[in-house]
Amino acid sequence: MDGGPIGYLGPEGSFSHDAVGELDAAAVPVATIPDLLAEVAAGTLRGALVPLENAIEGTVSATIDGLVFDHDLYITREVVRPIHLHLLARPGRDLGEIRAVYSYPHALAQCRGFLASLEGVATVPTTSTSEAARLVASSHEPWAAVGSALAGQLFGLAVVAGDIEDHAGNATRFVLVGRDEVAAPTGHDRTTIVCFQSADRPGSLYGILGRFAARELNLTKLESRPTKRGLGDYCFVIEFEGHVADDVVADCLADLQAHLAHVKFLGSYPVTGEAATSRRAAVTAARRSADRWIAGLRARVRD
């Protein structure tokens, strides 16, 4: 994915702003997730880094629904970042003075327990955590924002309470999306697809999952999403290990496409994380060994 800027959920100081630093690319803030995806689809941006999944609150619906229903974009990379949430307010503001807390809905939900302990304090949703910090910094009202330490620094806010997320190990998975290119295989990849059924009938989900089991493809995520066509009408978002360039994956996708109303391909991309590099090296070594074995067998074939 070369040339042009990468968009992220702004303004500066958001967790998306922090994550986009891993991409080593020119980056620009955009106000909302739907705007980010729309600008990539229109070609205004060459790509966008958007939050897809949080360890506490699960899937970010604005991202997954935009990819499933609104645009034809491909996931080309994932970035996983630890998330530490802080209550930010203007310097000198005491915790007991706070009467409203602003932030992105997912961030508010990730510290639901802490916020519930603040009596008489309203929660107000915003388009991003950094937008919440900007609003609080620009007002003399007794407000606070839930956001990152970076947002506090950029907007001149003090940390009134730190690490207020409800569970340790909080993290968000961001994905880089683009219009045209599928990422090259690396030996340790993940593929994301959406399966639409022509009719809901007994065993239909089993029939989908059985095609993965028959090929020993390991599923890493399965989620149902309403198709927005009527109550009870769902599609299935499926993530599994492998790349569309792998023969076994291509065979599975072709089989699904032949038997379902529609299969939407959302991308094949490298898996990230602590074990990804060692796993990728092991897979590469195993494939080279297998290629040498096959070459040895073929060398014995007589004309």
How would you describe this structure in keywords?
303 residues, alpha/beta, D-Maltodextrin-Binding Protein, domain 2, Alpha-Beta Plaits, 3 domains, 6-stranded mixed β-sheet, 15 strands, elongated
CATH topology of the largest domain: Alpha-Beta Plaits
Structural shape: elongated
Which CATH first-tier class of the largest domain would you pick?
Alpha Beta
Quick one: how many beta strands?
15
Q: Number of DSSP helices?
A: 10
CATH architecture of the largest domain: 2-Layer Sandwich
| SSE ordering | EHEHEEHEEEHHEHEHEEEHEEHEH
The value of Rg in angstroms is 22 Å
End-to-end CA span: 46 Å
Task: Tell me, rounded to a whole number, the average pLDDT.
Answer: 92
- Unreliable runs: none
Helix content: 25-40%
Beta-strand content bin: 25-35%
What's the number of domains?
3
- Main beta sheet, described? 6 strands, mixed
What is the SS-derived class?
alpha/beta
CATH superfamily of the largest domain: ACT domain
Short description:
With 303 residues, the chain is α/β, with parallel strands linked by helices. The chain is 33% helix and 29% strand.
Describe the protein.
This protein is an alpha/beta fold. It has 3 domains: 1-82 and 169-181, Periplasmic binding protein-like II (D-Maltodextrin-Binding Protein, domain 2); 86-161, D-Maltodextrin-Binding Protein, domain 2; 183-291, Alpha-Beta Plaits (2-Layer Sandwich), CATH 3.30.70.260. The protein is built from 10 helices and 15 strands. Strands 1, 2, 3, 4, 5 and 11 form a 6-stranded mixed sheet that branches. The chain has a 5-stranded mixed sheet with strand order 8-7-9-6-10. Strand 3 and strand 4 (58-59) form a beta hairpin. Helix 2 (33-42) packs parallel to helix 3 (61-70). The longest helix has 24 residues, at 276-299.
